[in-house]
Amino acid sequence: MPIKVTLIPGDGIGPEVSTAAQNVITASRAPIDWEVVEAGEACIAEYGTPLPEYVLETIRRNKVALKGPITTPVGKGFRSVNVALRQQLQLYANVRHLRNLPNVPSRYLDVDIVVVRENTEDLYAGIEHMVGRNAAESIKIITREATERIGRYAFELARREERKRVTIVHKANIMKLSDGLFLESVRSVARDYPEIECDDKIVDAMCMNLVQIPEQFDVLVLPNLYGDIVSDLVAGLVGGLGVAPGANIGEIGAVFEAVHGSAPQIAGKNLANPLAMILSGVEMLKYLGFVEEAKRVEKGIEHVLRQRDYITPDLGGEAGTQEMATAIIEAMA
Ligand code: NAD
């Protein structure tokens, strides 16, 4: 019985990279039945919002979605679709598997880091107000419940993927209450996973160590704001936006999406690198339990990257988005 998955092509380069990912995932022989729905700019005129209710409905029903990037209209009062999706579907964990890939330009060689970011609270809760005319206050929320949930997610992931260490990233030396609670709550979860080493690092030192010797890190678990910043930093260590997959995981479902945006400058030109979107699809296959199929796609990607004949311009090649996807499909066969 095929598993139904919502596919949101998105804006800009979204449709191109989504088609590439859909074709590659289908060729992996995973039994997936795609339900394609529009969200983003095209919906605004008709529905008055980039995220119509029917899109949320299909994700609630199917529980799993693969999503292309969506343009956030500037200054028109729309909330970011991504933030809205995370809140509405309670996608509490943002997870990025970031590792060096063959022939993808990077300053490092052996980076293999999973960034696990809490996705529902911290300063991202957006509770702000003015204090008089010349001061603004933003409230940082950290709760034991949400922190234990993200901590458990990080340790379960480490156990499942046979990883050795989870590092808690914080600033508890200064924010003794909020970050102190984050640190203490994840540490309390760590006791249930004696086979996995648990340590912690202050976020500023973490950034320095990441650019010095990133190879030493394994799984990182962070509150929302530090997670936002550090996950982009780690994406930069392995070659940037074109190769960074992402996942937003909740208790009832998950949305998988590339880290990059809609790149309007190159949209419609068959120039976009489809790897980030295909790798997000690989994460989705693993989440659904299609591990063999995921490995098949990973092997196809490795082959195409090593061979270098069918890679997109951002990786130094001349192939188009669809040519690269086709080469991956052929390598999988
Ligand atoms: P962007 O990621 O779209 O582009 C940044 C740079 O990276 C550009 O030079 C672009 O050409 C390049 N790039 C991005 N993806 C690429 C790919 N797959 N292959 C080759 N080159 C690629 O970021 P931006 O310009 O800040 O944002 C553009 C729009 O996307 C904005 O409206 C923003 O709100 C939206 N956005 C959406 C998401 C999402 O839906 N997940 C994420 C980030 C930005």
Give me a quick take on this structure.
This protein has eleven helices and twelve strands.
CATH topology heading of the largest domain: Isopropylmalate Dehydrogenase
What is the overall silhouette?
Answer: globular
* Ligands, deduplicated: nicotinamide-adenine-dinucleotide
Residues in β-strands, percent: 15-25%
**Order of the strands making up the biggest sheet:** 2-1-3-12-11-4-5-10-8-9
- Uncertain spans, ≥5 residues at pLDDT below 50? none
Family: Belongs to the isocitrate and isopropylmalate dehydrogenases family.
Pfam family, one: Iso_dh
GO biological process, one term: tricarboxylic acid cycle
Protein name: Isocitrate dehydrogenase [NAD]
Notable characteristics:
binds nicotinamide-adenine-dinucleotide, single chain, IsoPropMal-DH-like_dom, NAD binding, 333 residues, 2 domains, oxidoreductase, Isopropylmalate Dehydrogenase, alpha/beta, isocitrate dehydrogenase (NAD+) activity, 41% helix, two-stranded antiparallel sheet, magnesium ion binding, 11 helices
Task: Describe, in plain words, how this protein is organized in 3D.
With 333 residues, the protein is α/β, with parallel strands linked by helices. The chain folds into 2 domains: 190 residues, 3-Layer(aba) Sandwich (Isopropylmalate Dehydrogenase), CATH 3.40.718; 131 residues, Isopropylmalate Dehydrogenase, CATH 3.40.718. Helices cover 41% and strands 18% of the residues. The chain is built from 11 helices and 12 strands. The strands form 2 sheets. A 10-stranded mixed beta sheet has the order 2-1-3-12-11-4-5-10-8-9, sandwiched between helices. A hairpin with a 5-residue loop joins strand 6 and strand 7. Helix 1 crosses helix 9, helix 5 packs across helix 6 and helix 9 runs antiparallel to helix 10. The longest helix is centred in the middle third of the chain and has 17 residues. The structure holds nicotinamide-adenine-dinucleotide (NAD). The site of nicotinamide-adenine-dinucleotide has 20 residues, from loops.
